Amino acid sequence: MRVDCRHPLQGLYALTDSGLQRPRDLLGRVEAVLSGGARLLQYRDKSAGPRRRQEARRLATLCHAHGAVFIVNDDVELAAAVAADGVHLGRDDLSLEAARGRLGARAIIGVSCYNDLARARSAAAGGADYVAFGRIYPSVTKPGAVQAPLELLRVARGALDLPIVAIGGITPENAREVIATGVDAVAVVNGVFGAPNPASAARRIASLFDD
């Protein structure tokens, strides 16, 4: 059963990275992170081929079994094919309007806004379900990404009336100060999937939203 689009977009938002584990280990590591308290999962895989669709279907089923939201990165057609809860769009991806037309009103559509509050305002006006700012800290996943300072998150929280996600270099050690800005979710890649114990790392971050 798909997660209702009104599910609160809050908490730990885990993002997969195919370079952090062998393909055969992905589902087990995702299950560990979900068991640790991740509320959302984004499937990020830039490869081609039929494996992606099969993998995405299995991840969608796993997320829904844990009551978590399943989002596909970039690929609107893949999101539609596997009945994902939604899609996350970057600057060079399909437009928000086109993605909404393809996936429907109930789909969750997130938009990367980097360090650009004007882009976030435009996304909000266009019907995005959440916006993401980052990188917040130096990122192993995207070392060349522009920096979004913590102060931007605070300003965005006061300016926008939709969920805000922070991404980039967030770990169990620094997540608390990011959450303190008022963001609704923290998106984490290496901080959980690159950890020796992904479930424990996820639990440490997820528990910060209960403080």
Strand content: 15-25%
* Helix count from the secondary structure assignment: 9
Largest sheet, spatial ordering of strands: 1-2-3-4-5-6-7-8
CATH superfamily: Aldolase class I
Mean pLDDT: 94
Name the poorly predicted regions. 1-6
What name does CATH use for the topology?
A: TIM Barrel
Entry keywords:
single chain, 211 residues, alpha/beta, TIM Barrel, eight-stranded parallel β-barrel, 9 helices, globular, disordered N terminus
Question: What does this entry look like structurally?
Answer:
- There is one protein chain.
- Helix 1 (26-35) packs parallel to helix 2 and helix 1 (26-35) runs parallel beside helix 9.
- The two termini are 30 Å apart.
- The longest helix has 16 residues, at 50-65.
- The protein is an alpha/beta fold and 211 residues long.
- The chain is globular, with a radius of gyration of 16 Å.
- The relative contact order is 0.18.
- It has one domain: TIM Barrel.
- The chain contains nine helices and eight strands.
- The protein has helices at residues 26-35, 50-65, 76-81, 96-103, 117-125, 150-159, 175-179, 190-193, 198-206; strands spanning 11-15, 40-43, 69-73, 86-89, 108-114, 130-133, 164-167, 185-188.
- Helix 3 (76-81) links the parallel strand 3 (69-73) and strand 4.
- The chain has an eight-stranded parallel barrel, surrounded by six helices.
